User: Fold these one by one.
Assistant:
Number 1:
Amino acid sequence: MRTLRLRSAAPSSSAVLLCAIAACGTTDPPLSDDVVLNEPLELLFPADNWWNRDVSQAPVDPESGALIDWICDRAGPADPCGASLHPDFGPHPYGIPYIVVGGGQPLEEVRFVLYGSESDDGAPGRPPGYPIPTEARDEAGWIEGGVAGGGDSGDRHLLVVDRERRLLFELWATRYDGSDGVWEAGSGAVFDLTSNDRRPEGWTSADAAGLAVLPGLIRADEVLGGNEIRHAFRVTVRATNGHVWPASHTAGSTTGAPPLGTRLRLKESVDLSSYPPEIQRVFTAMKRYGLIIADNGSDMFIQGTMDERWDNDVLNPAFRSLSADDFEVIESGWQP
């Protein structure tokens, strides 16, 4: 049996502790200025957040079969499913990197050019701006798409965690405008990682569904770590129809399509015993926590980090062995 190879990377010297305020005390944390790409993270958001809820016993939606048939794009009941899983991540330039910074990281002005009225200028109670390090402007591999400064094509997500303040800053359609030295983005959102607050109803984020992006990514540090992966993953389908909780934003009205916020769950009957342990860990999370439809894109593309440790020669065939037919849809808008 071939084992998934995650190419070695030196461990970070600065551990991340995203703890609850009660556990950390109420005094101001020390402010560091170190910057780490893809630093290992603890669980993002509280354990009862929608990303982190065990949904293995959640009820199946009455329309599950019809929604899966739509994702499979069947012309008739005898047709095979045309929607195999695909890992939408890998080594540079595939996937979405994330940056972890200290609380002393200077804030950069961001100019929003598409969804300014639904975007956050900065963190509540803090000066405007996002803590974007200069590396994202000057070096490849810090923004989705792999281009220094973001470039001009693709989704270009830029994700930054302030490790001391436990804040998550996310931008979409990001680029650095060298003509006036200002970052631009289509939209942006700031999330308190100790809170379960949703975006205002009707608002987007850096994600079409109004959700945070980072907690739904498959990360190399999780797969390497050997422990259970304890959160759902972010997935796309070709079109959507409205939105349901926990999503806050609509990005389509295609008849028969699932809403943004729909959660898919890998069926318990799917046998995982033939997969390498690392792949079993990923697929087991799909049984326990599921996939949340967060954006329009290619059917059953599951997002993860841009990381040189990924080996897509292992990931691709493992993911392709499953299709939408191996999943069921949890009751629409289900909350425990």
Number 2:
Amino acid sequence: MKVIGVVLGGGQGTRLFPLTHERSKPAVPLAGKYRLVDIPISNCLNSDIKQIFVLTQFNSTSLNRHVAQSYKFDMFTDGFVDILAAEQTVDNPNWFQGTADAVRKSMRHIERDADLVLITSGDALYRMDYRPMIQRHLEAKADISIAVIPVDEARAPAFGLLKIDDDRRIVEFREKPKTPGLIHPMASPEHVLARCGVSDPGRRYLASMGIYLFDLQSLDRALARYEQTDFGKEVIPSAIAEQRVFAELYDGYWEDIGTIRAFYDANLALTQPEPPFDFFDSLWPIYTRARFLPAAKLRDCEIDHTIIADGCVISNATIRRSVIGLRSVIAKGAVIEDSILMGCDAYSHHSHTIPTRVHHLTPNIEHGAVVRRAIVDKNAFIGERAVVEPPPDCPDTDGEGFFIRDGIAIIPRGARLPPGFHLARALGAA
């Protein structure tokens, strides 16, 4: 049984702006040293799915580079992780118009003797073995299987909801219903959920995780209507009425990292002593690019509940509940709290030594800088004694060298905040 994995990575990711201003959503850095796309690729590889396509379109350069540099197979295996970029052809001169359209236009590459096609998104944090889903798909003689997660009524409006019968067959689908009158009828029977291992009666709504398993002929039929360009909004509702579509219930940790708040919370949750998602799992590793960086070096620091990635040099700093990304160089007296630093693509060197600098490396967080409740994107520079801390209840704002989203300050990629910069004063002047 040959299974091809397809990772959807072509969307604009507008809700994650400005992190997606120069990169696609699956290329956004995660947990100090990974990228979001590493999660579905690792889940596929750990599930013995060794042939994977990543579909890309918007701002795809960094994603293409990361995949090419991270996932290499030797000559003795038929495994691969290949990029399928949107391309104009004689038959179709248009770019991808949606998730389903992206797969439709890539079918001539995907259908290489495939029996099953597993389609996943590139923007969620979860650990899932796809093999039981494949086995139950075959046992049920399903045409399509959809991974679902039980949620309560409060979270239900954010998802496409699926209702199942006693056999787990999906009988109804509604995309992000907003009113109780539309939500309540989508509750699945309690005895069916209990049989699937869900004992909490408050989580009676099954939300689509954006993970679809098709046999090849069913996928061809589902994509036959060219006017349907999106899986969740169009293809899946039509398929439920015409094909055998079953639910695969997943009851572990799964976080859709589609907004700045979700991204921020998911990263800081990793700093907990027992995080909801654990990268320290030798039986289910998360793969990424091997960079061959030195171990982090710390001197006279106060650090608590913090993740520090490879290649960091930190001197006399205070860091609490934060994620410090690759090659971060943090100078004396800096304070970092409740923040995500994505680090740098390369070290910046200088030719002379002054007391606040270490190893002839120019800090990207300078002497005495304060960073709280912030995301500092790659290659950004925070000047000496600058203060990056959004005021309470601050509305969304676009400023010179900064953004505020969901109460979180974001310093975009490559920005340079001058010495003495103060975010609160900059907001007052804006």
Number 3:
Amino acid sequence: MLKLIKLEWKKNNIFKYIRNAVITTAIIIFFIVIMAGELETGDTVQIYGKSMLTTATELFVHMAYIVFTGVMLAVFIVGAYEKKTMNLMFSYPINRKRILLSEMAAVWIFNYIAMVVSKLLIYVVLILTRSFTGISMTGISFGELSFWLNVLLSSAAMVSVSYISLPIGLKMKSSKATIVSSVVIVCFTQGNIGSATLVNNIPFFVVLFVIAIVSVYLSICNVETKDLL
């Protein structure tokens, strides 16, 4: 499986996505630091039970990488069906489900690591610049287990939720549908109507995680017998 994952990264030029992830993180850091500079010294505003900067960091990173994951799923899997390159992959003496799972894993691993690293880099920059901004770093403590659990688990949940867009793209035979679906997921999971929001709603994300698992199953079930798209 690891060899297949590495093959997918090489085939799809993973360095291009690394570059895009770096650019994305740099842009988010820029806006977060600007936001920090606009707050009053010692500001400890709370949003959704967290400090404003912590909430903003999670919001921007989650939005970016849910779409990022959708784009990679569109290229790695749906696009392979559209361009008929999946025919070549399925001609190998390897189980089709294993091939699809390796593609999904290649996308998941990359975006999970990228999301975690992105969050940590932003938090490090905020800590290094707090002498200039004077903003309280409430909720950002690298020495607390709860901090690491939040970073690791929330990142895993957000990347996994992105997979809901995969069967939609496969069903519609469209990479664009996959990407649009990921944007809809962003609006649904990260948006708010007035004071109502689903952010930090654990039961809701548990349901979405289950739906994501079902989506993965629907994407690979019967792949051994059904015709290619």
Number 4:
Amino acid sequence: MATTKIWDVKAHVSKLLAYVANKNKTTVELEGKRVDEAERLATEILGLPPEHFATEEKKFVTGINCTPDNAKEIMLSLLDDTDKDDIQAYHGYQSFKPGEVTPDTAHAIGVQLASELWGEDFPVVVATHIDRGHVHNHFCLCATGFSGKRYHDCKASYKLMRETSDRLCTEYGLSVIDKPKTENRKHIAEVHAKQKGTPTVRDQIRADIDAVANYEYIVKYFYNRMRSLGYTFERRGQYLRIKPYGSDKFFRLDKLGAGYTEADIEARVRRNAQTMEWTKIEYYKPTLQEKPKGLRALYLHYLYLLGAIPKVIPQNPEAYAAIKDDVRRARMYSEQAKFLGKYGLETKDDLIQHALKVDAQKKALCKERQKLRNKSRWMTEEDKQPFREEIFAITSQLKTLSKEFAMCKDVYDRSASVERTVMLIEFPQLLEQEKQKAAPKKEEREDR
């Protein structure tokens, strides 16, 4: 079994060659070691009999279209017209399963792999590193070939590298990695969100699809209802994609997981008609008689509206998009609500005054810390220790104050958008009033 990887290198090609052909990595030095240590290296790490090293004195380094000694000169001559900021070489990697392959076999596979992939036009140095618990090959591939053409690294070229490596491993009797099952893959953002316990955009799309698919029993009405929630549909080739309100990104339905392909969703909707089982979407009904008083009251009410994956479904798509977007920030809003309650900050003026107070404390502590640093500058290590402890304590205080100052700024900047979203949800008539104000008057339209 071998894993492969390749990436571009913009540093000087000599640095890569020095690393790849490092003597300490490509040979085993037995001088000065006990015999039992040599046997341990041979049997446990490399899987070879000790006598192998008595006769094998070469380094596991081979040049293709060059030698290890003249590789630098040849590559630099080919890179003569290349800008310093451009890619100078490509660093390839092929790692084998520990204990499955000997250095000789690994090196033979590496040389054959490099010859098939790049041997027609590019100078390459292949080196087998045996300094770790697993044998692995490194490749230094010059970015410019003898024909003057540049190597093009892309998905297709990497796929060819991986497939060739797997074929050679199979020919040498080694295991290969089974092809991963793409249907069970998750986007990295979903993995991180799951670790934090916060929903992602995909979670919210799935939740809306579930709610509407459980409600509708005619496919046409399903798409109309989704559009009324602010979603846009687009067909790209054979795939149907969906975009939430206010987003610039489309998501393929078949990438949302099992049960969310176009065929699966439409089958769920048709099943409702067959079984006569569907549920009604409950839109949120405004409960407030007047807007929340004070910043903390505003934030607490907003946290109630956010729920988990918003339990509140407003009538208008703008408010729905805003609340769904902020569900992922619910933890942050909770911390800000606690912060406002801790210091009794009810208005923006209170927020500004607290921020100024925190800023003054930060400046005073910075001056005190600098004095301590100046005093301890020429002291011995032993005399510096008490000063270091004081400096560390001040630094910890500064971190806390910096977080508070950043919290003040963030609440000040966000409070207007939070208030607007709350007002759109609790007082939807305000949206109509805004639209009427924004619309040009009849006289103005006639003049145009």
